[in-house]
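User: Can you predict the 3D structure for this chain?
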Amino acid sequence: VLACDMIVASEKAKLAENFINIGLVPDGGGTYFLPERIGYHRAAEIFFTGKILTAPEALNMGLYNRVVPADEVLNTALDLARELAQKPPLAIAAGKAILNRETVPRLKAFLEDEAGNQRIMVGTQDAREGMTAFLEKRKPNFIGK
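Assistant: Here is the predicted structure, written as C-alpha coordinates:
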Protein backbone atom coordinates (compact mmCIF):
# COMPACT_ATOMS: atom_id res chain seq x y z
CA VAL A 1 0.00 0.00 0.00
CA LEU A 2 2.73 2.48 0.95
CA ALA A 3 4.28 2.27 -2.53
CA CYS A 4 1.06 3.46 -4.23
CA ASP A 5 0.83 6.90 -5.80
CA MET A 6 -2.62 7.54 -4.34
CA ILE A 7 -4.69 5.59 -1.84
CA VAL A 8 -8.45 5.50 -1.38
CA ALA A 9 -9.19 3.53 1.78
CA SER A 10 -12.26 2.27 3.55
CA GLU A 11 -13.09 3.93 6.85
CA LYS A 12 -12.71 0.41 8.31
CA ALA A 13 -9.17 -0.05 6.94
CA LYS A 14 -6.26 -0.64 9.28
CA LEU A 15 -2.58 -0.25 8.51
CA ALA A 16 0.14 -2.05 10.43
CA GLU A 17 3.86 -2.71 10.35
CA ASN A 18 3.70 -5.01 13.35
CA PHE A 19 6.53 -7.44 12.57
CA ILE A 20 7.99 -6.47 15.95
CA ASN A 21 5.22 -8.41 17.68
CA ILE A 22 6.65 -11.68 16.37
CA GLY A 23 10.33 -10.80 16.76
CA LEU A 24 11.00 -9.69 13.19
CA VAL A 25 11.95 -6.47 11.42
CA PRO A 26 9.76 -4.65 8.89
CA ASP A 27 10.16 -5.77 5.30
CA GLY A 28 8.62 -5.32 1.87
CA GLY A 29 10.05 -1.81 1.68
CA GLY A 30 8.32 -0.63 4.85
CA THR A 31 11.54 0.77 6.29
CA TYR A 32 11.89 2.93 3.20
CA PHE A 33 8.32 4.00 2.50
CA LEU A 34 6.92 4.65 5.97
CA PRO A 35 9.62 7.10 7.18
CA GLU A 36 9.59 8.68 3.72
CA ARG A 37 5.85 9.30 4.03
CA ILE A 38 5.47 10.30 7.70
CA GLY A 39 8.94 11.00 9.08
CA TYR A 40 11.40 9.06 11.19
CA HIS A 41 9.86 9.53 14.64
CA ARG A 42 6.34 8.50 13.69
CA ALA A 43 7.66 5.55 11.69
CA ALA A 44 9.90 4.45 14.56
CA GLU A 45 6.93 4.50 16.95
CA ILE A 46 4.89 2.34 14.57
CA PHE A 47 7.78 -0.06 13.87
CA PHE A 48 8.87 -0.48 17.48
CA THR A 49 5.45 -0.63 19.16
CA GLY A 50 3.55 -2.57 16.50
CA LYS A 51 0.83 0.08 16.60
CA ILE A 52 -2.08 -0.55 14.24
CA LEU A 53 -3.31 2.64 12.59
CA THR A 54 -6.98 3.27 11.96
CA ALA A 55 -8.04 4.79 8.65
CA PRO A 56 -8.54 8.28 10.16
CA GLU A 57 -5.08 8.11 11.81
CA ALA A 58 -3.46 7.06 8.53
CA LEU A 59 -5.31 9.83 6.69
CA ASN A 60 -4.18 12.44 9.23
CA MET A 61 -0.57 11.28 8.83
CA GLY A 62 -0.80 11.62 5.06
CA LEU A 63 -0.69 7.89 4.31
CA TYR A 64 -4.10 7.87 2.59
CA ASN A 65 -5.49 10.43 0.15
CA ARG A 66 -9.12 9.73 0.93
CA VAL A 67 -11.08 7.69 3.45
CA VAL A 68 -14.63 6.79 2.50
CA PRO A 69 -17.32 4.34 3.61
CA ALA A 70 -16.49 0.76 2.58
CA ASP A 71 -19.24 0.62 -0.02
CA GLU A 72 -17.88 3.76 -1.72
CA VAL A 73 -14.21 2.75 -2.09
CA LEU A 74 -14.43 1.30 -5.59
CA ASN A 75 -16.53 4.13 -7.02
CA THR A 76 -14.33 6.78 -5.38
CA ALA A 77 -11.20 5.12 -6.78
CA LEU A 78 -12.78 4.86 -10.22
CA ASP A 79 -13.81 8.54 -10.10
CA LEU A 80 -10.22 9.45 -9.25
CA ALA A 81 -8.93 7.24 -12.08
CA ARG A 82 -11.33 8.90 -14.54
CA GLU A 83 -10.17 12.33 -13.35
CA LEU A 84 -6.54 11.36 -13.89
CA ALA A 85 -7.35 9.88 -17.30
CA GLN A 86 -8.45 13.36 -18.42
CA LYS A 87 -5.05 14.85 -17.60
CA PRO A 88 -2.12 14.94 -20.05
CA PRO A 89 -0.45 11.51 -19.78
CA LEU A 90 3.02 12.74 -20.72
CA ALA A 91 2.95 15.39 -17.99
CA ILE A 92 1.74 12.84 -15.43
CA ALA A 93 4.48 10.40 -16.48
CA ALA A 94 7.14 13.13 -16.27
CA GLY A 95 5.88 14.28 -12.88
CA LYS A 96 5.89 10.73 -11.56
CA ALA A 97 9.43 10.19 -12.85
CA ILE A 98 10.60 13.33 -11.04
CA LEU A 99 8.85 12.32 -7.81
CA ASN A 100 10.41 8.85 -7.97
CA ARG A 101 13.87 9.80 -9.26
CA GLU A 102 15.69 8.76 -6.09
CA THR A 103 13.33 5.94 -5.15
CA VAL A 104 14.70 2.96 -7.06
CA PRO A 105 18.34 3.04 -5.91
CA ARG A 106 17.41 3.90 -2.32
CA LEU A 107 14.60 1.35 -2.20
CA LYS A 108 16.93 -1.37 -3.49
CA ALA A 109 19.37 -0.69 -0.64
CA PHE A 110 16.57 -0.72 1.95
CA LEU A 111 15.17 -4.00 0.57
CA GLU A 112 18.63 -5.58 0.78
CA ASP A 113 19.02 -4.40 4.40
CA GLU A 114 15.55 -5.66 5.29
CA ALA A 115 16.20 -9.08 3.73
CA GLY A 116 19.58 -9.46 5.44
CA ASN A 117 18.22 -8.51 8.83
CA GLN A 118 15.12 -10.66 8.35
CA ARG A 119 17.35 -13.70 7.63
CA ILE A 120 19.12 -13.06 10.94
CA MET A 121 15.92 -12.43 12.91
CA VAL A 122 14.16 -15.57 11.63
CA GLY A 123 16.91 -17.66 13.23
CA THR A 124 16.55 -16.12 16.68
CA GLN A 125 14.84 -17.58 19.72
CA ASP A 126 12.79 -14.39 19.97
CA ALA A 127 11.36 -14.87 16.47
CA ARG A 128 10.51 -18.51 17.17
CA GLU A 129 8.85 -17.45 20.42
CA GLY A 130 7.01 -14.60 18.69
CA MET A 131 5.65 -16.80 15.93
CA THR A 132 4.70 -19.59 18.35
CA ALA A 133 2.97 -17.13 20.67
CA PHE A 134 1.07 -15.66 17.71
CA LEU A 135 -0.15 -19.10 16.63
CA GLU A 136 -1.06 -19.98 20.22
CA LYS A 137 -2.79 -16.59 20.66
CA ARG A 138 -0.73 -15.64 23.70
CA LYS A 139 1.67 -12.88 24.66
CA PRO A 140 5.28 -13.68 23.69
CA ASN A 141 8.11 -13.81 26.22
CA PHE A 142 11.10 -12.25 24.43
CA ILE A 143 14.56 -12.81 25.95
CA GLY A 144 16.87 -11.00 23.52
CA LYS A 145 18.33 -14.13 21.94
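The chain has a mean pLDDT of 94. The helical segments are 30-38, 40-49, 55-61, 73-85, 89-99, 103-122, 125-135.
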